[in-house]
Structure formats: C-alpha cells, structure tokens
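Summary for the steering committee. One of the milestones for this cycle was to obtain a three-dimensional model of the protein with iron/sulfur cluster bound, which we needed before selecting residues for the alanine scan. The sequence and ligand used are listed below.
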Amino acid sequence: MSQEEIGDLNLLTIEEIKRKVKEIRTHLPRDERFFITYSKNFTLSLSNYCQNFCGYCFYNHRIPKPNGQENAILLENEQMQTAIQRGISHDCKEALLMSGERPDSFKEVKDELEKRGCKDFIEFVKEISKYLLDFKILPHTNLGILTYNELKILKGYNASMGLMLESSNPELLKTGGVHEESPGKIPDIRIEHINNAGKLKIPFTTGLLIGIGESFEDRIKDLYLIKKIHKKYGHIQEIIIQNFVEKPGIPYKPGEVIMIKDLLRISGIAKIILGNEIAIQVPPNLISGHEKEFIEMGVNDFGGISPFTIDYINPRKLWPQIDELKKICEMQGYHLKERLPIYDKYIQRKDFCSENIKKTIDNIIY
Ligand code: SF4
C-alpha cells in the first residue's frame, strides 16, 4: 500500500466510511448480514509473571494490585476448580487462558511448576486445556510469544489462540517508548508468531492496541500487514481494535487521549481493508454507550464476555450484561448471537480444528 492510499483512507469522513462499510456488508449472504457475535466465556489468569514490562500494562507482576490482591505466581488448583464450576453453571463454552509472557523464566514460577509436576509452563497449560475439554469447555489461549513447537503442542487442545500485534512501529521499543523494556514486543518476533500460527492452521485472533504512541499511518500499515498474512494462511478469524485505557500505577502517561471518534474511524477503516473475511471486534466494556456507532462502522463481534470473571487487563471496566447488549443490537436491527471461540467456518475447514476440539464441539449444544 502506498502513502497515497494511506492518505486517501485518512481523508475519508465518518459518513463516507459508514457508506463504504454498508456497501461491503451487502456482499454478505442475507442471513449473515444482521448478526453480531460474542462468546460466553470466563478467564483463567494463570500467572502475572511476565518477562516484558510494557508501559501501559496493569497485569504485569511488577505492578502492585489494589485491595491487597496478590499477583499470581501460578493459578491455584482450587481457584481453577471454582472457576470451572461457575463457568459450567453459567453455561460458558469458552475459557480464556492468559498469562504474562514466558512466566517460567522466573525462578518463583519454575519452582511452583516443579511442585505441580510440570516440566515447563507449556505442559501446565496443555494439562489445563485437556482438563477443560473434559468439562466441554473450549480453551482459547493467549500467553504472549511462543515458539512454533509450543504452538503446535497447544493447538491439539485449543479451539483457537491469540496474540495481539498491537503495533509494529519499532519506535515504541526505543528509550521512552512503551515497549522499551519489552523484548517480546519486537515486531518481527510477533509477526513470526502470527505466521507460525498460520502455518499450523490455528484459528487465530490478533489486533491493534490503539493509543500507545503509534500514528494513524502505523495503524493502517498494520491492518494491511494482517491482511497480507491472512491472505497467505487464511487463519485469522477476527481482529480486535482495542483502546488503551488509563489504569492506576502504570508508568505510561499518553500525550494524547484516544477519543471514541478515532476508534470509530480505525474500526471502519479496518472493515474497508479487511472486508467480510475477518470479523472486526471491539471489547464492549471499553466502548460502552457507543455500541450503535461501532456497529455502523462494521464491528460484528463483541468477543468474549464473562458473566463472573473480570477483565484482567482493564479491571475497572465491567463486562456488559448480555441481555442489555442484546437489546442494544436489536434496536439497530441486529441479532446478538453466541458463537464458540472457533468460528463455524474453521470447524469445517480442513486441518483447522483438532480431533479433540471436534469431539468436544459435538457434545456442546449452543
Ligand atoms: S502487556 Fe502483556 S507482555 Fe506487556 S507486560 Fe503486560 S502481560 Fe507482559
């Protein structure tokens, strides 16, 4: 994509974006045109320990948590059992498994893994994933950067996996940038991870983090980059457009606050660039009160919504009530529909869905 093309997209008014998005939607089969999806899930936060220290992060173990809450070295077995039981009672189909990046690079985590009889963190995650499947709960894992082999191990027990591209602007790694102390945020390493997931045919979620020091141009370039990777492997089922939100105790103080209108623009432009092939997702707890405008900008997925676990990245932002969200969608002429963490088209697509996952899906009624 040329500077001129980026400039052209930049010049579009909100109304022009809206019109283009509407036109793109007409290419969908009629029965798919008026659905917005979400996945009913709960989160298992496995470890706050992280090799990186991103300036905007509240999750990292180096940030003290309020109300005397401890940073987890490794999720306790009892906590997991309680969450699973609650997940079952709420009829959740997905468990989001998340952690800091490479937690087992820390001695505290390594020692705890040893006590639990696991040789490394990946084995721990694999065992939890297998266990969840026994309860007909589909894991979606996002642990930060993994090797090709680690992705391969987890694919067998995960319905889908994820890694935010965030931003491929290398300037963010320089002194004073949000990724200054985050070796895992080197763009080439993240791009390699997303490519590897494609080679392994893993249904995948990625996305942009907006408002961390990147420019409008960077965002557009990254959307084209995601499009290019998807063209090669066909594995990206959704992209998240996620805005930075201020949190207590974090080092990053944005020079410029991200406005809803900026998010709306980039969501609409994402739809224009990616078309109907990849779902455009915004976290509904971060855009509350503006759902209608985002739907008009082509957003067609609200991601994982939990009836009982918090958003660990933005703990002050509460998940919406599904019934409320349903009403909002209906007022716009859309139907809010539950989906699994693997999109239907990937269940059917050859080699994208492992036998373990297929078997579990056969036992899930949704
Ligand atoms: S954003 Fe992710 S990678 Fe960065 S410090 Fe937080 S947990 Fe680690």
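Key point for the committee: The mean pLDDT is 96.
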